[in-house]
Amino acid sequence: MTRNAASRNRHEGSDPVAMVDASAHRRSEDAADAAEIILGRYLKPGHWPARAARLRFTQSGQLEHVLSLYEKAMATDPREPAYPWNLAAALDRLGLHDLALVYVQRALRVATEVGDKEWADAHAHLAWADIALNAGQPDIALIAIEHARSLDASLAVEGYVRRARRAVAPREAHQAEVRASADNRDSSRKGKAVEHLVASSVMLASDFELNVSTSLVDDEGVDLVFHRRDSPVTLAVQVKSRSWASSAMLKSSKFTAQVRDTTFADRSDLYMLFVAVDSRAGDYGPVWLVPSSALAERTAPNSRHRRRFAASAHPASHDQWSEFRLERSQLSDRILTILTGLEAMRSS
Questions:
Q1: Helices in the chain by DSSP H: which ranges?
Q2: Of the four listed, 170, 172, 221, 266, which is most buried by Cβ atoms within 10 Å?
């Protein structure tokens, strides 16, 4: 992308003001030439430097000197786009793509401001796109490509577009993965909060006749274990919660959840507790306390080995799960009743 440096005769003339301009221009060129001498030790015309050469430059401590010299040239002659352009070209070849992107954009801005079409034409914008892609900025590259197209509709830009789209795709996939990971973390935190909310409210409502234990691991699908005080009999409960803010609950008062078959077992001391949660109020209800035997009988695992539970939260509904629907205030009594039945089974 490197172009010829600005002409040394550009500002020269007999006018005193022009002579001052020419003097400033020569100082700018002297600074730029000094920088190019340093860069010439690592960059050969027409060749991209080897990795070893790039490494030598970055370890030499000369980057700050080169930038200082070019900044002096640009400060002395701020209307010359060749200086930021040539610096951008060198930095790009040396693998310093982020810095190169800054200076090529500066070159284009200066060229546009002074009306220098040579440094701001369609090909210049494609060079901008190329550096943006090297810097891992495909969004900026796509903007540069559109600018190039607007300046020359016949320009072949398809290769640049493909490179930009290939760069965008994995980034978007990564962002989606990050969002999913964050959603999973939030879901896990909400699930634990609901479990503790249910446990504490049940203990309080039973006047502490009920005790509750939580599970350290979830590999058996048990979240809470209830037992009556001074009784060895326990009731294992797997908790599935959904917020009233979800679309299905808001629109049709329908609670839906999926139970993994790998953590589900049909046994007399395992129940499923489906909990509708009001997150804003820190409250819950209704709930469905469903025996694992009933869930096993009334549902079947799908191709992903999951059972789907779908029940109406409307008080007047009479679907297949309505017999298990409870208000929050009824939950502790129902658990005590179930434990009484399990205790009777054990003693018989």
A1: 16-40, 51-60, 63-76, 82-93, 97-114, 122-134, 138-151, 158-205, 247-252, 292-298, 328-347
A2: 221
How much is the pLDDT for 199?
92
Say if residue 313's pLDDT is above 50.
yes
Look at residue 161 in the predicted model and tell me its pLDDT.
87
Within-domain flag for 7: no
Which pLDDT tens digit goes with each residue over 130-139? Answer: 999 999 998 8
Residue 5 lies in a domain: no
**Is the sign of the CA dihedral 66, 46, 102, 115 positive or negative?**
positive
Low-confidence winner among 62-76, 198-212, 248-262 (lowest mean pLDDT): 248-262
Closest CA to 154 of 116, 123, 190: 123
Whether residue 332 sits in one domain with residue 211: yes
Which whole number is the average pLDDT over 31-49? Answer: 90
Tell me how many degrees the CA angle 216-290-279 measures, rounded to the nearest 5.
Answer: 65
Q: Are residue 138 and residue 263 in the same domain, yes or no? A: no
Distance set, CA 179 to CA 120, 240, 303 (Å): 39, 22, 26
Residues 6+ apart with CB under 8 A from 313: 249, 253, 254, 255, 276, 286, 325
What is the domain-level CATH number for residue 64?
1.25.40.10
Instruction: State how far the Cα of 109 lies from the Cα of 329, in Å rounded to an integer.
Output: 69
pLDDT at residue 16 greater than cutoff 50: no
Domain boundary residue among 172, 188, 218?
A: 172
Do 215 and 337 share a domain, yes or no? yes
How far from the centroid of its chain's Cα atoms is residue 215's Cα?
31
pLDDT of residue 297: 95
Straight-line distance from the first to the last Cα atom of the chain, in angstroms, rounded to the nearest whole number: 89
